């Protein structure tokens, strides 16, 4: 059902070292603060998370998921689990399916860093974009469901959700380019010419702002599907969500059509028609039909931005792998992937003044 190479690295759970979380202290806190919680508590860690460590909590009557800020990072270095919790609560009943957020704890004394707890959503999670083992019609339906969910998110009014202050809607692209330029230059172990080219070009070719609520990392392996139907039960990992440009969010999602499968999931080189998966142009057209946005005739600048941003994120993950602070042992491999994605981004702007 999933690509064995990627699944072996990222799927499933692993035991939690005894020193990582005081399970008794956590259980005592949840018993006082989480309605319906009843010990004993079993704890294990999901392997796939690269930023905020994520854990499965099992009790005799319920399963939960806990996401925490890494203990090793400073308070102001991102990883804002309170923002994730807030957007999950805001999206309940919005038409964008998310897990039920149960509890936010901002006291680091409980397990060493702030965390939140949400319900575990039981369904299918795919790591490989060609959805092996499925029929073409089901693949087509799953991709259409992803498209519809992203379009729904981008057409929500943040004010109606109580999220009008969830980010600064003006200047999103400029702030993003500046942020990820700093990340690259702070974390890269050696110069990357393609990243320098992208940083300079993007700073001078920023698209006009068009604010909406965006996910920031919308991809197949952040989506839980119904066990038997091509229906989305939950969109996960809202760490990078904010008020920003919807087409930039779309482009980040569409970057997969340009990547080859490997350390990262990609569709380049696949026989999409045989698989039942829409080509990128058709997928974008369907999104535009759903949102009513004007046609993004030139997606290349947004794709260049998406590649630059993703490469910078990968550089940061690889750095944590080198330092031994990453949550997944495959983190070091992301350094190689960062170079590939940066080179792809430079191709999107090749020949442009």
Secondary-structure topology with pairs:
Elements (H helix, E strand, L loop, with lengths): L3 H7 L2 E3 L7 H11 L8 E5 L7 E5 L4 E6 L12 H11 L9 E5 L9 E5 L16 H19 L17 H16 L5 H12 L7 E3 L8 E3 L6 E4 L6 E3 L1 H9 L17 H4 L4 H12 L8 H24 L10 H15 L5
Antiparallel strand pairs: 1-2, 2-3, 3-4, 4-6, 5-6, 7-10, 8-9
Please describe the structure with a list of short key phrases separated by commas or semicolons.
six-stranded antiparallel β-sheet; 353 residues; disordered N terminus; two-stranded antiparallel sheet; 10 strands; alpha+beta
What would the CATH topology of the largest domain be? Answer: Aminoglycoside 3'-phosphotransferase, Chain: A, domain 2
Total beta strands? 10
Q: Briefly, what CATH class of the largest domain?
A: Alpha Beta
Secondary structural class:
alpha+beta
How many helical stretches?
A: 11
Give the termini distance in whole angstroms. 45 Å
What proportion of the residues is helical, as a percent range?
25-40%
| CATH homology superfamily name of the largest domain | Aminoglycoside phosphotransferase (APH), C-terminal lobe
The strands making up the biggest β-sheet line up spatially as 1-2-3-4-6-5
> Approximately what portion of the residues adopt beta-strand conformation?
5-15%
Average the pLDDT over all residues and give the rounded result: 89
Note the overall shape. globular
Order of helices and strands: HEHEEEHEEHHHEEEEHHHHH
Parts with pLDDT < 50 across at least 5 consecutive residues = 1-10
Q: In angstroms, what is the radius of gyration? A: 20 Å
CATH architectural designation of the largest domain: Alpha-Beta Complex
Q: Strand count, sense and closure of the main sheet? A: 6 strands, antiparallel
Number of domains: 2
């Amino acid at each position: 059902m999933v690509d064995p190479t990627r699944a072996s690295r990222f799927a499933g759970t692993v035991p939690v070292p005894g020193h990582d979380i005081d399970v008794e202290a956590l259980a005592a806190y949840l018993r006082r603060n989480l309605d319906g919680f009843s010990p004993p508590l079993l704890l294990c860690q999901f392997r796939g998370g690269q930023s905020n460590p994520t854990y499965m909590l099992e009790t005799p009557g319920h399963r939960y998921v806990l996401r925490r800020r890494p203990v090793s990072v400073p308070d102001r270095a991102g990883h804002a689990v309170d923002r994730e919790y807030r957007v999950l609560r805001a999206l309940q009943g919005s038409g964008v399916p998310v897990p039920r957020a149960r509890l936010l704890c901002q006291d680091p004394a409980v397990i060493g860093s702030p965390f939140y707890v949400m319900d575990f959503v039981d369904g299918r999670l795919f790591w490989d974009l060609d959805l092996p083992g499925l029929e073409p019609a089901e693949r087509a339906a799953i991709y259409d469901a992803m498209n519809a969910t992203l379009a729904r998110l981008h057409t929500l009014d943040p004010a109606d959700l109580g999220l009008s202050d969830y980010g600064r809607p003006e200047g999103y692209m400029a702030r993003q380019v500046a942020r990820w330029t700093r990340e690259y230059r702070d974390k890269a172990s050696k110069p990357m010419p393609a990243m320098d080219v992208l940083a300079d070009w993007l700073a001078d070719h920023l698209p006009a702002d068009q604010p909406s609520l965006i996910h920031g990392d919308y991809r197949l392996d952040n989506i839980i599907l119904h066990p038997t139907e091509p229906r989305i039960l939950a969109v996960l990992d809202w760490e990078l969500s904010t008020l920003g440009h919807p087409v930039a969010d779309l482009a980040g999602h569409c970057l997969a059509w340009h990547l080859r499968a490997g350390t990262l999931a990609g569709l380049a080189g696949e026989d999409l028609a045989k698989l039942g998966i829409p080509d990128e142009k058709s997928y974008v057209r369907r999104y535009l039909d759903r949102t009513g946005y004007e046609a993004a005739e030139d997606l290349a600048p947004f794709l260049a931005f998406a590649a630059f941003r993703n490469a910078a994120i990968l550089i940061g993950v690889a750095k944590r792998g080198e330092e031994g602070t990453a949550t997944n042992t495959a983190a070091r491999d992301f350094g190689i992937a960062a170079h590939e994605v940066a080179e792809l981004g430079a191709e999107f702007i090749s020949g442009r003044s």
